[in-house]
Write a structure and sequence with these properties.
alpha/beta
Length: 226
């Protein structure tokens, strides 16, 4: 899979000025810089056309485009990601966990999108810090997992990305402001860069670890009841 991660520019800036230099890719990913704040009220009223723009770009490129954004649902704010494939909006995934005090609240459930580039799972922002996020997407047969992050203030996002890829046997990509990286199924960082545009080839492979644990004394299956 040919992947291009955009760490700084907005979707419209890339579309207007840099599309030729970027070239054709199976998957084009923008961080939260891609669209900024999107108001559902203005989108539905025709005042803005953010979703239409991402659909048009995916159609022009004949590829999958994923873009992070903050969504305003009549005063309720969420971190979100929009997924488009060859001219069609496949859906919007919200961050499922809200951490500490924030104006951004938790949104919908996790989702794996069946796209022309394969089955792609989406993790939004701090959902990356919860191991079950990658686990759920893997169990839903994701071929590749993309995490859109605001801005990296520590090494923890990369650590969790590598751990998630290793523990679940699925390659994972992180796209944030001024940084992008990809971890393979062995937990190794195959690509890491602070460049504006990061291009990579991702090998879609899956690995399932056989896990056994020692049992001592009285053991009863968790689902058998007590």
């Amino acid at each position: 899979m040919d992947v291009c991660l955009i760490t700084k520019e907005s979707l419209n800036t890339v579309w207007q000025d840099k599309l030729t230099s970027i070239g054709r890719h199976d998957l084009l990913v923008f961080g939260f810089n891609g669209m900024g704040l999107v108001s559902y009220k203005k989108e539905l009223g025709g005042e803005t056309e953010y979703f239409q723009d991402i659909a048009k770009l995916s159609k022009q490129l004949s590829s999958v485009v994923i873009c992070g954004c903050d969504t305003d649902t009549y005063g309720v704010f969420r971190h979100s990601a929009v997924v488009a494939d060859r001219g069609k909006i496949l859906g919007v995934t919200d961050m499922a966990h809200a951490i500490d005090d924030s104006e951004f609240v938790a949104g919908g459930n996790f989702r794996v999108y069946d796209t022309s580039a394969g089955k792609i799972g989406i993790i939004v922002a701090e959902d990356l810090f919860f191991p079950e996020s990658a686990r759920v997407l893997t169990l839903c047969d994701a071929d590749f997992i993309v995490c859109l992050f605001k801005k990296l203030d520590s090494a923890m996002p990369q650590i969790m990305l590598r751990a998630g890829a290793f523990a679940n046997g699925v390659a994972m990509a992180l796209c944030a402001k001024n940084y992008a990286c990809i971890a393979d199924i062995r937990g190794n960082v195959s690509v890491a860069s602070s460049a504006d545009i990061v291009k990579a080839k991702v090998k879609i492979e899956k690995d399932y670890h056989l896990i056994s644990s020692r049992r001592r004394g009285l053991y009863r299956d968790f689902n058998s009841g007590y």
